[in-house]
Amino acid sequence: MRSPTGSGKIVDGPPRERGLLAFLMPRGAPLDMQILGRTLLHAHLVGALAGLIGAGFFAGLEYVQQFLLEGLAGYVPLRASGEQIGHRAGENVFRPWLLVLLPAAGALVGGLFMRLAPETRGGGGDAMIDAFHHQGGVIRGRVIWVKALASMFTLGTGGSGGREGPTMQIGGALGSLVARVLKLSTRERRVLLVAGVAAGISAVFRTPLGAALLAIEVLYRDDFESEALIPAILASVISYSVVIAIFGESTLFARGERYPLHLAHLPLYGLLAIFVAFLSTVFLKALRAVQGLTSRFRVPFWIAPAAGGLCLGVLALLMITFVGGKVGMAERGLGILGGGYGAAEAAITGGAFIPSGWTGVELLLILCIAKVLASSLTIGTGGSAGDFAPSLVMGALLGGAFGRAAQLLSGDLTIQPGAFALVGMGTFYGGIAHAPVSSLIMVCELAGNYDLLVPLMLAEGIAFVALRKRSLYHAQVPSMRHSPAHRDASSGDVLADVRVGDILATKRPIVSFSPATPTKDILSRIPDDAEQEVFPVVDAAGKLKGLISPEALRFLATHREVEPFTVAADIMQPPITVRPGTDLRAAAKLMLENDLHQLPATDDLGQIVGFLDEDDIFGAYLSATGPPAQRGAVQ
């Protein structure tokens, strides 16, 4: 509204629109029951389809590996107990020259498939996360079969990576496709994408709860996609049920012994977390170095993985020749090629080929460094292989070596190297993926018990802090408020981080009245061009007693006959104020609830210390959410 003129004549008109504050206040309420129920039904569908596709991918990969890597090259992979679904009949004849060439050939075939969908390069996790935040949850349907085929040939010929990364992207693409076919909203599509990710991981890793938690945690560095939790859990359970109905119920690793908690060992677990953080940094540096070198090659992106595969084949042959022969593993795998879960299980349960004493420690460390190099060569050159499995394997190998060394140095036979291997496994991936909760639960599911809950919590916490500035996934954003997917819904959270005192106009002239001021004097004292719309009523000590609202002034303008009989105390409303420490979200809510565009700010004594305008709040929002170069006023 406009202020009255000096003669007391007021220009009447409708109150100013509430668009600014209504825009800023959160609108992203949780899904209502109708949408939620529909989403849960769709999550069941996604879980069932992901289970079938995951089972097919798992079986196809096993067939390719048995036919090419084992049958042609004669390479016998080191497998975990629950990793294989069948056994190849016949005798393997080891062909070293073919083992060198086979990873390159498989990566080249995978690269040819990736030409049809370049977003399938690498592990797939970054592409999935980027699709959630920046592409409205849309992943092209062709990603499902392109990623599956590219990964089958890359991993089936020895690529050093895991199946979980590809199924993370495949499951996300499946959830996105179901949402598009059913013509669901963008919001529901994102939820189903997350549900598909959970179902994809659960299908091949067989940790239903950990997979669901990972799907909602891996999107952010410091947050969870809480709205998708229940759909992710349901999809994960359905997918897991489908897979075990086909292949039978089993865990990836052989069930280990129980791990009783020894409080005296907690400092050792804390020290292990520091070593894990250091190794994680080494792996990330090696991975980024290979990626940087690959980007400088003037060759098509689909050829680069073949170069990485050739280097990987040479590395594998060197390890078999110079390391495998010394530990009775000649012509056999040491976990360098493929996911490497067999090496991780050996570190956990104590493989027969691992020597006792310091020689065993040395072997585990050599395998760990070799896995760092092998995975960097495969994933860093763009090979379609997951980064999830190598991270777990590296952590397990380092943890197993640490546990054995601690036992030898201390002479404490209660130290169980397998416990340290499991803690190292969860801590490595949880630290570099910023997913400490899900990786903790996954390790407990893999171990078949929660004996290691306390050591895992300690180690995960230390690694999480130590690796704050490093991440396996570039596409992660800090929290929901930083994601374009929640930009509208998180506006209120942006305001919650700013205090009234940060933007309060303390030098703005304020027109106020005493309770006894006649109403005719009120109208005459308001300037024609006044920006102030709300007028405080204060006592002789300056303490706020009430407010004269625009509605009260509008009433006076249309009922001039009451002027001789009324004073400020008659038309004021109870005081509505904010404090300098009040956050802008609460202040905006107070304005909306009371239909006011301005509010006085008062101190503990009720004295007015400034005036807050709706435009000030909107300016603070723009400053907080604008480009980095334009921020700073409210940070």
Identify the notable features of this structure and list them briefly.
single chain; 635 residues; mainly alpha; CBS-domain; Clc chloride channel; 2 domains; two-stranded antiparallel sheet; two-stranded antiparallel ribbon; 56% helix; disordered N terminus; disordered C terminus
Describe the protein in words.
With 635 residues, the chain is mainly α. The chain has 2 domains: 19-26 and 489-630, CBS-domain (Roll), CATH 3.10.580; 33-486, Clc chloride channel (Orthogonal Bundle), CATH 1.10.3080.10. It is 56% helix and 3% strand. The strands form 2 sheets. Strands 1-2 form a two-stranded antiparallel ribbon. A hairpin with a 5-residue loop joins strand 3 and strand 4 (608-613). Helix 7 (186-205) packs parallel to helix 9. Mean pLDDT is 85; it is low at 1-18, 27-33, 488-492 and 627-635.
Mean pLDDT: 85
Strand content: under 5%
Which architecture of the largest domain would the CATH scheme give at its second level?
A: Orthogonal Bundle
Structural class: mainly alpha
Unreliable spans are: 1-18, 27-33, 488-492, 627-635
Secondary structure tally, helices: 24
> Remind me, CATH topology of the largest domain?
Clc chloride channel
Number of domains: 2
CATH superfamily of the largest domain: Clc chloride channel
Order of helices and strands: HHHHHHHHHHHHHHHHHHHHEEHHHEEH
Shape: elongated
Instruction: Order the strands across the largest sheet as they lie in space.
Output: 1-2
Number of E strands? 4
Percentage of residues assigned to helices:
55-70%
Distance between the termini: 33 Å
For the report, how would you describe the main beta sheet?
2 strands, antiparallel
Return Rg in Å: 32 Å
Report the top-level CATH class of the largest domain: Mainly Alpha
